[in-house]
Amino acid sequence: MPVDRPDEPTADLPSPGDEETAIEGPAGLPGSRVGRYRFVEILGEGGFGVVWRAEQTEPMRREVAVKVIKPGMDSRRVVARFEAERQAPAVMDHPCIARVLDGGTTGPEFERPGLPYFVMELVRGEPITAYCRSRSLPVRARLDLFARVCDAVQHAHFKGVVHRDIKPGNVLVAAPDGGPIPKVIDFGIAKALSIDAFGGPLLTEQGQMIGTPQYMSPEHAARVARRRGAARHAARGPRAARRPGLDRDEVPREGQVASLRDRGRAGGGRAQAPA
Question: Does the active-site annotation cover 165?
Answer without folding.
Answer: yes
